[in-house]
Amino acid sequence: MASPEESGQLSVEWARSHMPVFALAEKYLRKKDDGRNLFQDLRLASCLHVSKETAVFVESLKSFGMNIHLVAANPLSSQDDVASFLRSIGVSVSAKSNESIDEYTSSINSAAESNPEMIVDDGGELHVAYSQTGSLSCRGGTDETTSGTFRLKAIEKAGKLTYPVIPVNDAETKHLFDNKYGSGQSAIDGLFRAAGLLLSGKCVVVAGYGWVGRGVALRSRGMGSRVVVTEVDGRKALEAHLDGFQVMPMMKAAELGDIFLTCTGQIDVVRSEHFARMKDGAIVGNVGHFDTEIDVSGLNRLAIKTGQSRRNVTRFELENKKSIYLLCQGRVVNLVAAEGHPPEIMQLSFANQLLSLYYLLDHESELRDSKSRVLEFPQEIDALVTNLALEGFDLKIDSLNSSQKEYAQSY
What share of the chain is helix, strand, coil (3-state, %, to 5)? Predict the structure, then answer.
């Protein structure tokens, strides 16, 4: 039997073999750097989901000479064999599966207090923790989630963001693919692994029709489900309607749904009044980054009895004798019950991360005078990753000839 370290290494090698776009980004950067090696001996604090795809990214950064402190972006999502492998190659990893909230928080605070020169985050929690230390060691950072970008703007508004940050989630080559296609597949994967039930013929309620919600709705319909979308944004609601989905308030959807998946980044999207209306046997799960979208406390108050039905499924029996099943304690189902996004998707996100870190250092002097600390995502990186992705996927496209270019610029 393989040791955890060997098992982790095999998983990482498998991911790397399916991430040619990331390899091309790494190759591009080594050529562009031309021996300067801006990453050499740099102290990096990173708060990411400890997965095989993340390990490919982290191993690459280490090969550039970075000193890396890695902590988990979710207390339940870490893959222990991957963490073991990363430790074996000299990465400082403070993460394990099913760690307590105290352990999780302590690890993030420890990373924030390690005087990092760069920060890579997934959800903004490390940036928040660092802003509370009063340290001025950080020279730049990134974050790759919608939730993280919101938190960074709040830190900036409070006057506590002292370094430039690139919100990688704003890259079209990130949210168009990672959020839509990655979340769509991995959410369904997590649902299958947790519940193991048939989706065809069931009513799936998707809360939120942003990029994540679009992907989850699309893949649920692809599995033969009837999909209902709930929204608070009128334009997104119209889009969902024109995409062929039913649109209604959650109070009405609560009576129809067999499965509920939240994709909003908000708090209390599914609440006590919704649980009370649900069918016996309804399944509720979250695809958002934080465990705030489902009112788990409210569900506990309604329950007269609770118990584990499966590894990642908790049964709540209500006073009306109906049962509600909660997936993964309300935490992100695609990383707790499954393995997160597939490597073919994550290679685009991590290519953006890698190139963004280099951009911050390469443009450090001019960014120091930037009025905004939360930067716009550099269009040249998006264009580069697009071209690398076309090459990596072996896709050929047409180009405009001179007459077409002239026509496009005429009036």
Answer: 50, 15, 35
**Looking at the whole model, is its pTM more than 0.70?**
yes
As a whole number, the mean pLDDT across the chain is 96
**Token pair listed for 77:** 């999502």
Instruction: Please tell me the predicted confidence (pLDDT) of residue 294.
Output: 98
Strand blocks (E) in 24-109: 43-48, 67-72, 92-94
Looking at residue 162, what is its pLDDT? 95
Bridging pattern class, strands 303-310 and 313-318: antiparallel
Spatial distance between the Cα atoms of 34 and 43, rounded to a whole number of angstroms: 21
Strands (E), 265-374: 282-286, 303-310, 313-318, 323-327
Cα-Cα end-to-end distance for the chain: 69
Packing angle of the helix pair 379-392, 20-33 (nearest 10 deg): 130
Q: Residues with Cβ < 8 Å from 213, sequence gap 6 or more?
A: 206, 207, 229, 263, 264
Three-state helix/strand/coil letters over 225-276: CEEEEECCCHHHHHHHHHCCCEECCHHHHHHHCCEEEECCCCCCCECHHHHC
Tally of residues, the chain:
411
DSSP string, 133-154: TT-----EEEE-SHHHHHHHHH
8 A C-beta contact, residue 325 and residue 284? yes
Q: Residue holding tokens 């193991």?
A: 196
CA distance 166 to 99: 29
